[in-house]
Every structure is written in structure tokens, then in C-alpha cells.
Design brief:
The complex is a heterodimer of chains A (720) and B (252). In chain A, helix 4 crosses helix 9, helix 13 crosses helix 19 and helix 16 crosses helix 20. An 8-stranded mixed sheet of chain A has the order 20-19-18-21-22-23-24-25, with helices on both faces. In chain A, strands 7, 8, 9, 10, 11, 12 and 15 form a 7-stranded mixed sheet that branches. In chain A, 35% of the residues lie in helices and 19% in strands. The two termini of chain A are 75 Å apart. With 720 residues, chain A is α/β, with parallel strands linked by helices. Chain A has 3 domains: 136 residues, Ubiquitin-like modifier-activating enzyme ATG7 N-terminal domain (Cytidine Deaminase, domain 2, 3-Layer(aba) Sandwich); 141 residues, Cytidine Deaminase, domain 2, CATH 3.40.140; 314 residues, NAD(P)-binding Rossmann-like Domain (Rossmann fold, 3-Layer(aba) Sandwich), CATH 3.40.50.720. Chain A is elongated. Chain B is of the alpha+beta class. In chain B, a hairpin with a 5-residue loop joins strand 2 and strand 3. The longest helix of chain B is centred in the first third of the chain and has 18 residues. The radius of gyration of chain B is 21 Å and the shape is globular. Chain B starts with 11 loop residues before the first helix and ends in a 5-residue tail after the last helix. Classes of the chains: A alpha/beta (720), B alpha+beta (252). At the A-B interface, helix 1, strand 1, helix 2, helix 3 and strand 6 of A face helix 3 and strand 7 of B. Chain A: Belongs to the ATG7 family.
Chain lengths: 720, 252
């Protein structure tokens, strides 16, 4: 311990008395309160403020001599904790770091020392000796970063030649009997009672036989009537056995100033008073026999010291970074994460939250679905959310689209993508949200009116390709079917996970698109697929999921691996086009029961989370309704392909369907054309009627063969 | 104090009675527990929403890795590395004009003990609250450096005695979690209470079989406290045995 090394140096008598300096101890509450004061009261006021700390003489061995400041420090007239001594100080809170650095520390110290000296000379310190234990606190509070710079000073006036000990220090129990110690304790308690406090910083002691008398400092003249041995007591916060704490220093100056000419050697009792395991003891208090030096010039303020060293032992300030516990934004972030972690601690120990939180989500559409999806993503702690929408907020939106308010509709309405980002940041500043006010080109919606519209469409396609590349999951949340085509094609080509949600009046579908195998192996399998698609695959895959009953369902639709799953368009036997003509159940009516978007939006996110928890991610085998009784594949349960909901029956089913080899969006021929021809191919799709894609994929032929249109819908009695 | 039908649940009045008894003993022993109540207005005196609180300072060695932790009482050492390296890096502005201070600040009368870079003093704050959902007491705590910075969960974990740490980590449901203090709304750490009933049951059963005064909160604290560095003096137990003190605290 540190005390051992210092004890070694004081082996001989007639050695100088050395004091243990105070260490500053600041509670978090102090910084909170300083922040409040700075923001509400001080503002730019740099004038010195009065604050209060305290010190304690009951610490166990090994703790440093502390001066503690807590949140109550600004309430100077407030109570001091029981059995502690108050210390009053001056707070200098600067407005800038520069002012903190350039403040004249020497002048501050000398000013404070002068005040102590004046109080000694005037006799004020005799009446109220707590003046001897003052401190300075210089601070700069950087409330943007919640960094607090601070430097304490505990001013001590110095004797030029130090103070000589005439005897080795002794622990009380070595020089006093148990009775004498008990008498001392009794006398001290009596003094406290008389003074109406629980701690007395300085006092006078007189031994009379086995009895002990004590008196306050101001009664010196009447207490020490003869040339008897002079003994003073000091409430001592130090725990070292060879050294007194700081409060004794200025007391000795006061004594030398007042009675230096009369007193040569004197005894100091460093009074320590601790309770351990229920027993109180003062026998570890230390007595020092010292020669009280004379002050060379009793009218001039002595030299002073007292700036605290920093943790590295150098003369310099300290800094504490409290952003973790004070910055509201950091608090919000850690609370959000904490809330999610509780899920792991309590319920789902194997939940991989990092996978969810770090997922970058692209939300195509910022309407009823987009708003609800965004909010659920935030609930999962997802930080990276990007919106794409070209609409403005209209008066009917705010009641159904929870990211918008009435104000957002005024003046023509704000752009949805931009307003959604603003609102997300207000809800949770830790979010990393971006918005793109742009259109997504659609099949059957020509872009070739002019060179300008064509190049605009090309830029939009490039932007969308870039966005899809930069994100991990693409949510299709638009209000038209055909606007989902382009992102479906791009995402399938880039092997990005797609989660799609679409609403009818009281029905919805939430699904993940099949995730194609990586391109390298696909080159091989694509050839194999195309060559075999006419044989075994054609009978099954050319039949959309909805018309399954003709085939034994269990063998066909169970255990479909993720790369063989269909996309949104696989179930359709018409190509996307003008949706006013090709009506489908989820598009025939843009009005839904109001709760539907919340249900579907929430399910879309929960589906994404379950997929992410699966070791194979988007390649996970699709769970179906039949799997509800089986061991779930992830800690969160099933990973279905689709969730189809029927609000009229408050019922969901979990169908799974294979990718359709004539799909107008994800079939190999479409992806192949897109990858080879790029925008040229896309613009043909945009500018042509739906027959272009149907001809390309062979749907036209299929139509002629089966004449089975509109069969994709499921009827109620099918169990899939 | 607990239901004698062998169901060792602690109801809220029972919790308060136990706390009052513990407070009395703490007062006698100078152990530093206090009862804090939360804000009901002056008219709401009946609502006893409060908690027991104690703060303890511990000196922690930080010089090596893993390092010795010295209990303030000096009775026990443990292998820990409490503070992460970045926690020590205060990044203070070294450019402050300290040089011109050095000449007049040189103080031969000061002991050079204040600067002990090998040890760090931490202040631990312990709160005992009642959990209605578990019908048990719950131990909340947090720790601060002398600068006022609170320890992170990771730092708190490393301050746990390795024996306990293994034990806690193997059983995720009795682990330390970070949670909002239900009364203060500030982030605290807590020892999750879901195993409390499990280890209290045999103890209460035994005391019921051969009647012996048991203070539920005290017995519980003597189990969970040491895990997070809170030692309970044995004297509480010897104070408890004058049995008359207990019957008065029993609600029914």
C-alpha cells in the first residue's frame, strides 16, 4: 500500500510533518446538477458560485482522503450527512474550454488563501473554523459532448520551513489506556451534543487524570489557563497511520498566528472514528507531537499550495466523459438496445440481435404499409432505414399513416419520403434514415414520351439499382402491383432478400420472395433448369400455388427450400400492366380495413426477423401451416413463405409456393434479359403492353392452353 | 413474515416489516442502510413506496490484468480487472498551462500518496426494492468512479468474483441485467429475482420446522449481496436471535 512507502521515510524523529492531500470525489448527481444549473440558472454567467462538499473520518484503511461533492453541493445551507464535516468552496464554471485553460490558477489560489488568512487574522476562523477547510473547483461543462473538465484546489497556507515532529506519531491505543480512550470518545460525543452537530472539525483537549475535557477552538484563552500541555483535536479524514489529513494544515497556521509566541511544542490528536461490523472505535486515531513554528511575518499572507494532481500524478486537470449516462440520445439508444436484450436474457437466449439491428432496410413505399413497417423496424432496433416514395402527404393520410401529422399536409403536402425520415429522427435520434423522393418506373406505363422522360426513367432505374445494392432487405410496400415489378427483378438479380406486403379490403399477403442461388452456381443450374423445365418441373411449377388441389399438397408444397420459392408475380398468370384493367384481389380496391396495414406491416417485419434468425437466412426451407406443431426451425419459430390473412375470419394461413418458370418477374428468362440488356430491356417492358412480358415468358401460350385466368386466388376450403 | 403454508412468498407488508427490522439493526451496527421513500404528496403518507439504500466504497487495483481487488475491509482479495483501458484514458487536455504552476505548487509538506495510479476507488450504490411480480426483494446496484462516471455492464461483470461470475454466466436467468430502476427511472444493474424463491424455500422451510426467527430480506441479502461485493456482517444474525424483536414485525 501507499502508506508503507511513506512510512519508511519517516523513521527518525525530528522529521517534517507531511499531510495527505484531499482527493476529489464527485458523484454523478453533482454533474447532473451542474448541468441543470448551467442550463437554467448560470447560462453564460461565469461569476464564482458557492458550493459545499463534505469529508468523513470513518473510512476503512486503504481509502484515499476524500472531499465529496454530490448533487446537494449547490444547496449550501442544506444538511451535511451525519458524522461528516462540511467544506465550503467556490465554483468557477467557465463558458469555454479556452477560458478553463487560461484561467489564472495561481491567482485563484492566492485569492482563496488570502480569504482564509484574513479570516484567521480577524478571528472569524476562530469562531467558525470550517473556514479553514475551503476549496476551489474550476470547471468547464461541454454539454454538447457531456465532457466535464475540472480541477480542484484545496488551499493550504505553508510554513516556510515546514513543521517538525518532536516524536514519532503514535496510534492512540499504544499510548492511552482503554479507559482513557473511552473518556476521549465520551468527551467528543459530549462536545457534539453541546454544539448540536454530529461532527466537530476542530477542538481543544485537556486531560485531567483519566478524564478528558473538550472545548471549541474559540474558548482557547479560558480553556488553557496555565502553561499546561496544549492539545488540539482535529476531525481527520486521513486513514494513514503516519500522516494527518489536509484539514490540520490551516489549523496549525491559525494556531501559530494566534498563539505562536506562547506555544512551543504541542500535541495534535487526529481524531478518527469508524464503525466496523457494528463496533465503533477511535483507538486508531493518531497523535502527533509537533513543534509549532513561528510565522516569520505575522501580517503577510503565507505562501499557499493546493491544486490537485490528476490521475497520472501530474499537475493538471481531469476530464470525465458522461455521455453514456447523460446524453439523452445515448440514453435513448442504450434503452432501446436494453429493451431488446431483455428479450434475449429472459425469453430467447439464442436470439441474434446484432443480425437484426445491423440489417439495412430499403422501404419502397412510405404510405400506410411503409409507416407501419418503419415503426416496427425501429422497435427491433434497426438503425438503417431508407424510404423511397414519390407521393406527397394528403389530408387523408395522417390518420392511417402514423409517421405523418396534419401539419405535414399543409401547403400542398410534404414529400412522404422526406417527412418520414424527419419523423423517424424525432422518434429516435439514433436512427440512420434517408429518404428518396422518386418514382419507380412500371411496366405498361410508358417512359418514352421524350428524351427527357426516358433519361429520367434511366436515372430512376440506376438510383433504384444502387439503393437495392446498398441494402440487405427490400420491402415492397407500394399501392400498385406493377410498381413492384422492377424492384422484384433487380432484387432477384442481386440476390437480395425481398419482403412483400400487399393489402386487399380485408385480406392481405405478406411474403418473402424466393432467394435465387448465388450467380456462380446459378450459371450451371440455370442451364440444367432450362433443359429440364419442360419435363418434371413443368407439371408442378407451371401450376400456381392457388390451384394446387389437383396435386397431392403435402409432397409438393412441403419442404420447399428458399431458392425454389416463388415471388409475388409467380402466382399470377398475367403480366403486370395497367392495374385498372388487370384487377387482382389485393389491388382491386385501394381501401382496406384500417387495422389491416398495421397487421400486415408488423408481420412483414416479424417475417424478416424470423428469416434473419434462420441459419440459412433467405434460403431457409419454407414453413407451412402444417409445421405449426413441429419443432420450429428458429428460436423465434416458423419461417413461412407467405402469410395470407383474412380479417373477416381473423385467420391467417401459411401457404408456400414454388417459383414459376414462366414468372414475369423472377423467371430465368426475364432475369437473363435484364442482366444482359439492362435498361434497354426494361424500357421495352415499360413501354409495351403486358403482352410483351407474357410473350417473353411463354404465358401467352399457357393462356391459350388452359384458358385459366384469375386462378391464383385461394378459395377458403383449401388447406395448404 | 412469510406464508406458513410452505409457500415462501413475501408480500409487500412483510417486505416492509423485514426492512424496518433490518434498518433498526443497521442503525445499531452502524452499517449504513437507510430507507428512502419516493415522492407521494403530503396527503399520501400511507403509500410506502420506497427502498433500502446503502453506499459502499471499494478500492480496486488496476495495475495489472487480471489484477487484485482489495476489499476496503482488507479481508478478501479477488482476481479482477475492473476498468477497461479506455475507461482510464480521460483524454484530458495536456496542453493546460500546468508548467508554470509547477514551480510554486511544489509542496514538500504533502504526502505523495494521493497519486496511487495502481488503485481506483469505486463507489457502489445498493438498493433493495420489492418486486410485486416475483413477490421477492430485488437487489439493484450501480457503481461510480470518483469522477462520477458510472461503470458499464462489462466493467461491472469484471468486478464480480470469478467464482460467482462462472455461476452467473452458466445460468442466464439469474444473471446481472441492466434495467431501469422502477422508482428512479435511472439505469441500474440488477440481479434477476427469478431464482430467489428457489434458494429461499429450503431456508424458510427449515426455520419453520424448528421455529427460529428469520428475516427474509436479511437472509436473502446474505445470499445475493456477496455476489456483487456487498457483505453482510454476521452481527445481524446475532442481533436477530433475541427472538422477541421478530414477532413484533410479523404482519399477521
Amino acid at each position: 500500500m501507499a502508506s508503507d512507502t511513506s512510512e519508511a521515510s519517516s523513521s527518525t524523529a525530528d522529521v517534517k510533518l507531511q499531510f495527505a492531500p484531499f482527493s476529489s470525489a464527485l458523484e454523478a448527481g453533482f454533474w447532473h446538477q451542474l448541468t441543470q444549473k448551467k442550463l437554467n440558472d448560470y447560462r453564460l454567467d461565469e461569476s464564482p458560485k458557492c458550493i459545499k462538499g463534505y469529508y468523513y473520518n470513518g473510512d476503512p484503511v486503504g481509502l484515499p482522503t476524500r472531499l465529496t461533492l454530490e448533487f446537494s453541493a449547490f444547496d449550501v445551507d442544506g444538511p451535511t450527512p451525519a458524522r461528516c464535516c462540511p467544506a465550503v468552496g467556490t465554483l468557477y464554471n467557465t463558458n469555454t474550454l479556452d477560458a478553463f485553460k487560461t484561467t489564472d490558477k495561481k491567482a485563484l489560489l492566492e485569492k482563496e488563501a488570502k480569504e482564509i488568512w484574513d479570516a484567521i487574522q480577524s478571528g472569524a476562523a476562530l469562531k467558525d473554523p470550517s473556514i479553514l477547510c475551503r476549496f476551489i473547483l474550476l470547471t468547464f461543462a461541454d454539454l454538447k459532448k457531456y465532457h466535464f473538465y475540472y480541477w480542484f484546489c484545496f488551499p493550504a497556507l505553508c510554513f516556510p520551513e515546514g513543521i517538525k515532529m518532536v516524536k514519532q506519531p503514535s496510534v492512540l491505543e499504544q499510548v492511552f489506556s482503554a479507559k482513557e480512550i473511552a473518556a476521549l470518545q465520551e468527551a467528543y460525543d459530549g462536545l457534539c451534543t453541546k454544539q448540536g452537530t454530529t461532527a466537530v472539525p476542530y477542538f481543544l483537549i485537556k486531560y485531567a487524570g483519566e478524564g478528558v475535557q473538550m472545548a471549541p477552538l474559540r474558548e482557547w484563552e479560558t480553556f488553557f489557563t496555565h502553561a499546561e500541555k496544549v492539545t488540539v483535536g482535529v476531525y481527520d479524514p486521513c486513514t494513514l497511520s503516519q500522516h494527518p489529513g489536509w484539514p490540520l494544515r490551516n489549523l496549525l497556521i491559525l494556531l501559530a498566528n494566534q498563539w505562536g509566541s506562547k506555544v512551543d511544542t504541542m500535541e495534535v490528536v487526529c481524531f478518527r472514528d469508524r464503525t466496523l461490523q457494528g463496533s465503533r472505535s477511535i483507538q486508531h486515531s493518531v497523535t502527533f507531537q509537533v513543534k509549532l513554528p513561528e510565522l516569520p511575518n505575522n501580517s503577510v499572507c503565507p505562501k499557499s499550495v493546493g491544486w490537485e494532481k490528476n490521475p497520472k500524478g501530474a499537475m493538471g486537470p481531469r476530464m470525465v466523459n458522461l455521455s453514456e449516462c447523460m446524453d439523452p440520445k445515448r440514453l435513448a439508444e442504450s434503452s432501446v438496445d436494453l429493451n431488446l436484450k431483455l428479450m434475449r436474457w429472459r425469453l430467447v437466449p439464442s436470439l441474434d440481435l446484432d443480425k437484426v439491428v445491423s440489417t439495412k432496410c430499403l422501404l419502397l413505399g412510405a404510405g400506410t404499409l411503409g409507416c407501419n413497417v418503419a415503426r416496427t423496424l425501429m422497435g427491433w432496433g434497426v438503425r438503417h432505414i431508407t424510404f423511397v416514395d414519390n407521393a406527397k402527404i394528403s389530408y387523408s393520410n395522417p390518420v392511417r399513416q402514423p409517421l405523418y401529422e396534419f401539419e405535414d399536409c399543409l401547403g400542398g403536402g410534404k414529400s412522404k419520403a422526406i417527412a418520414a425520415v424527419d419523423r423517424l429522427s424525432k422518434i429516435f435520434p439514433g436512427v440512420n434514415a434517408e429518404g428518396y423522393n422518386m418514382s419507380i418506373p412500371m411496366p405498361g406505363h410508358p417512359v418514352n414520351f421524350s428524351q427527357a422522360t426516358l433519361s429520367q426513367a434511366q436515372r430512376d432505374v440506376e438510383q433504384l439499382e444502387k439503393l437495392i445494392s446498398e441494402h440487405d432487405v427490400v420491402f415492397l410496400l407500394m399501392d400498385t402491383r406493377e410498381s413492384r415489378w422492377l424492384p422484384t427483378v433487380i432484387a432477384a438479380s442481386k440476390r437480395k432478400l425481398v419482403v412483400n406486403a400487399a393489402l386487399g379490403f380485408d385480406t392481405f399477403v405478406v411474403m418473402r420472395h424466393g432467394l435465387k442461388k448465388p450467380p456462380v452456381s446459378q450459371n450451371v443450374s440455370a442451364e440444367a433448369d432450362s433443359s429440364t423445365s419442360c419435363s418434371s418441373a413443368s407439371s408442378s411449377s407451371s401450376t400456381p400455388a392457388g390451384s394446387a388441389p389437383s396435386v397431392p399438397g403435402s409432397s409438393l408444397f412441403s419442404n420447399i427450400p428458399g431458392h425454389k420459392l416463388g415471388c409475388y408475380f409467380c402466382n399470377d398468370v398475367v403480366a403486370p400492366g395497367d392495374s385498372t384493367r388487370d384487377r387482382t384481389l389485393d389491388q382491386q380496391c385501394t381501401v382496406s380495413r384500417p387495422g389491416l396495414a398495421m397487421i400486415a406491416g408488423a408481420l412483414a417485419v416479424e417475417l424478416m426477423v424470423s428469416i434473419l434468425q434462420h441459419s440459412e437466412g433467405g434460403y431457409a426451407v419454407a414453413s407451412s401451416s402444417d409445421d405449426r406443431m413441429n419443432e420450429p426451425p428458429t428460436s423465434l419459430g416458423l419461417v413461412p413463405h407467405q402469410i395470407r390473412g383474412f380479417l373477416s375470419r381473423f385467420d391467417n394461413v401459411l401457404p408456400a409456393s414454388l417459383a414459376f418458370d414462366k414468372c414475369t418477374a423472377c423467371s430465368p428468362i426475364v432475369l437473363d434479359h435484364y442482366e444482359r440488356e439492362g435498361f434497354n430491356f426494361l424500357s421495352k417492358v415499360f413501354n409495351s403492353s403486358h403482352s410483351f412480358l407474357e410473350d417473353l415468358t411463354g404465358l401467352t401460350l399457357l393462356h391459350q392452353e388452359t384458358q385459366a385466368a384469375e386462378i391464383w386466388d385461394m378459395s377458403d376450403d383449401e388447406s395448404i | 413474515m412469510f406464508n406458513k403454508m410452505s409457500c415462501p412468498a413475501l408480500d409487500e407488508p412483510g417486505f416492509h416489516a423485514c426492512c424496518q427490522l433490518l434498518l433498526q439493526q443497521s442503525e445499531q451496527l452502524g452499517d449504513g442502510w437507510s430507507w428512502l421513500e419516493l415522492g407521494g404528496g403530503p396527503g399520501e403518507e400511507g403509500s410506502e413506496v420506497g427502498y433500502l439504500k446503502k453506499t459502499v466504497l471499494r478500492s480496486v487495483a488496476v495495475d495489472s490484468n487480471p489484477v487484485q481487488t482489495q476489499e476496503a475491509s482488507g479481508s478478501e482479495t479477488e482476481q479482477t480487472s475492473i476498468l477497461q483501458p479506455e475507461a482510464q484514458d480521460t483524454g484530458e487536455p495536456a496542453s493546460l498551462n500546468a508548467d508554470d504552476l509547477n514551480d510554486y505548487i511544489k509542496d514538500e509538506d504533502a504526502v505523495c500518496t494521493a497519486v496511487d495510479i495502481n488503485s481506483q476507488v469505486l463507489q457502489y450504490e445498493y438498493h433493495i426494492l420489492y418486486s410485486c411480480s416475483y413477490s421477492t426483494p430485488v437487489l439493484y446496484f450501480r457503481a461510480f468512479t470518483m469522477e462520477g462516471r458510472s461503470l458499464t455492464l462489462q466493467e461491472v461483470w469484471s468486478s464480480i468474483h470469478p467464482n460467482y461470475r462462472l455461476c452467473l454466466q452458466n445460468s442466464p436467468l439469474t444473471t446481472i441485467t441492466q434495467q431501469e430502476h422502477p422508482l428512479l427511472g435511472q439505469p441500474f444493474f440488477m440481479l434477476h429475482p427469478c431464482k430467489t424463491e428457489e434458494f429461499m424455500r429450503p431456508l424458510l422451510q427449515a426455520s419453520h420446522d424448528q421455529p427460529r426467527p428469520v428475516n427474509y430480506v436479511l437472509s436473502w441479502l446474505s445470499v445475493v449481496g456477496p455476489v456483487v461485493g456487498l457483505d453482510i456482517p454476521l452481527k445481524y444474525c446475532t442481533l436477530l436471535h433475541p427472538a422477541s424483536s421478530l414477532s413484533s414485525a410479523e404482519p399477521d
